[in-house]
Specification:
It contains 13 helices and 12 strands. The chain has 2 domains: 167 residues, Isopropylmalate Dehydrogenase (3-Layer(aba) Sandwich); 135 residues, Isopropylmalate Dehydrogenase. A 10-stranded mixed β-sheet has the order 2-1-3-12-11-4-5-10-8-9, with helices on both faces. It has a two-stranded antiparallel ribbon with strand order 6-7. Helices cover 45% and strands 19% of the residues. The chain is globular, with a radius of gyration of 20 Å. β8, α8 and β9 form a beta-alpha-beta unit. By secondary structure, it is α/β, with parallel strands linked by helices. α1 crosses α11 and α7 crosses α8.
C-alpha cells in the first residue's frame, strides 16, 4: 500500500524517539513492499520559536493531507510560563480538534520482566491487559474559561453525541477482547457525569454480548492499583482519563513503554507515546523509544489495517523487553539506538521466519 505519514517530532526527546519509530516503519515498508512517505513538520515549543505558533499553518495542512500522524512530544522549561499567551500544549489540543480525533486509546499490558520495575506488588500485576478509551475533545479542557483577580472557571460540558461516539469505540474494542467495559464517572456529584452514565447505558444496549459496569472515578483510582487484572476496556471523560491513564502507566513499569492512538470517524489517526518531552535527558541518546515504536504499530493497525505488520512490531518489542538490556528508566544502560537496533533485528528475524 501507499500512504503519507506526517511526522511531528516536537520537543525534548520527541525527535529521538520519533526517529526510532520511523526507522521501524521504514523496515516494515521494505519487508512488506509498502510505500510510506514521511514528511516532518513543527509542533509545540520548537514551532513557537520558529513561527510564533504552536501549530503552524504548514503543519495543519500537512496533517490534514496525511493518512496518519506520528507525534513525539511537546513542551519544555523554556516554554513553561503559565501566563504565556502561546504554549506548546496548545498545539496538541488544536491538532486533536483539527483532526476530529475524539477517542484516545491507550493499551496497558504488563510484561513479566517490566513488572519488576513497577512499585506495585508483582502478584497484582499478573494478567494485566487493559485498554483505556479516553474522550479527547470535550470536557473542561475545551470548555469556556474565565479569569479575574479573585476567581477562575473552567466549564466542563458534554453533549450526548460526544459521549455516544466514544462509548461506541469502547464497546467495539471490547467485542474483540474480553467483552467487558468499565465506564468511569462521578455521577454522585457531577451533572455531566450523570449524563455520561445515562448515555453509556443506552449505548450498551447495542452490544448485548458486552458486559458493562460503572465505577466512580475516586474508587477507580484505588481499584487500578489494588485489582488491575480485573479490567478490560475502560472508558471515561477527558480530565478523568488524563489522570487515570498516567496512574495506570505505573503498572507497566515505565511511561516509556506505553503507546497511544487518537482516533475519530475515519481511518486517519494521531499516534504518540504517552510520555512527555523529558527535557532533562533530551539529546543524550538514552530515551526509551518503545512507546513511540509501539505507537507506530497502532498506526499500522488502526489507520492502515495492517494487522500482521502491527503484530510483528509488537512481538519484536516483547522479545526485546524480555531478554535485552533496557534503557535507564528500567534500570538499564541501553541507548535509544541500541533498543531500536534490537527491535529491528527481531523484526527482521520474525519476517524471515514467516517467509520461510
Amino acid at each position: 500500500m501507499r500512504a503519507n505519514i506526517a511526522i511531528l517530532p516536537g520537543d525534548g526527546i520527541g525527535p529521538e524517539v520519533t526517529a526510532a519509530a520511523v526507522s521501524v516503519l521504514q523496515a516494515v515498508a521494505e519487508r512488506h513492499r509498502h510505500e510510506f512517505r514521511f514528511d516532518s513538520h513543527l509542533i509545540g515549543g520548537c514551532a513557537i520559536d520558529a513561527t510564533g505558533e504552536a501549530l503552524p499553518e504548514a503543519t495543519r495542512n500537512a496533517c490534514l493531507g496525511a493518512n496518519a500522524v506520528l507525534l513525539g512530544a511537546v513542551g519544555g522549561p523554556q516554554w513553561s510560563d503559565p501566563k504565556a499567551v502561546v504554549r506548546p500544549e496548545q498545539g496538541l489540543l488544536q491538532l486533536r480538534a483539527l483532526l476530529g480525533v475524539f477517542a484516545n486509546v491507550r493499551p496497558i499490558k504488563v510484561s513479566d520482566r517490566a513488572a519488576q520495575f513497577s512499585p506495585i506488588r508483582a502478584d497484582r500485576l499478573q494478567g494485566v491487559d487493559m485498554v483505556f478509551v479516553r474522550e479527547l475533545t470535550g470536557g473542561s479542557y475545551f470548555g469556556r474559561k474565565t479569569r479575574d483577580a479573585d476567581s477562575a472557571t473552567d466549564e466542563c460540558r458534554y453533549t450526548v453525541l460526544e459521549i455516544e461516539r466514544v462509548a461506541h469505540k469502547a464497546f467495539q474494542l471490547a467485542q474483540s477482547r474480553r467483552k467487558k467495559v468499565t465506564s468511569i464517572d462521578k455521577a454522585n456529584v457531577l451533572e455531566t457525569s450523570r449524563l455520561w452514565r445515562e448515555t453509556v447505558n443506552k449505548v450498551a444496549g447495542h452490544y448485548p454480548d458486552v458486559t458493562l459496569e460503572h465505577q466512580l472515578v475516586d474508587s477507580m483510582a484505588m481499584l487500578l492499583i489494588s485489582r488491575p487484572s480485573d479490567y478490560d476496556v475502560l472508558v471515561t471523560e477527558n480530565l478523568f482519563g488524563d489522570i487515570l491513564t498516567d496512574e495506570a502507566a505505573v503498572l507497566a513499569g515505565s511511561l516509556g513503554l506505553l503507546p497511544s492512538a487518537s482516533l475519530g470517524v475515519g481511518s486517519r489517526g494521531l499516534y504518540e507515546p504517552i510520555h512527555g518531552s523529558a527535557p532533562d535527558i533530551a539529546g543524550q541518546g538514552v530515551a526509551n523509544p518503545i512507546g513511540s515504536i509501539l505507537s507506530a504499530a497502532l498506526l499500522l493497525r488502526y489507520s492502515f489495517g495492517l494487522e500482521t505488520e502491527a503484530a510483528a512490531i509488537e512481538a519484536a518489542v516483547e522479545s526485546v523487553i524480555a531478554d535485552s538490556e533496557l534503557t535507564r528508566d528500567l534500570s538499564g544502560t541501553a541507548s535509544t539506538q541500541s533498543i531500536t537496533d534490537a527491535v529491528l533485528s527481531r523484526l527482521l528475524s520474525t519476517t524471515e521466519i514467516q517467509a520461510a
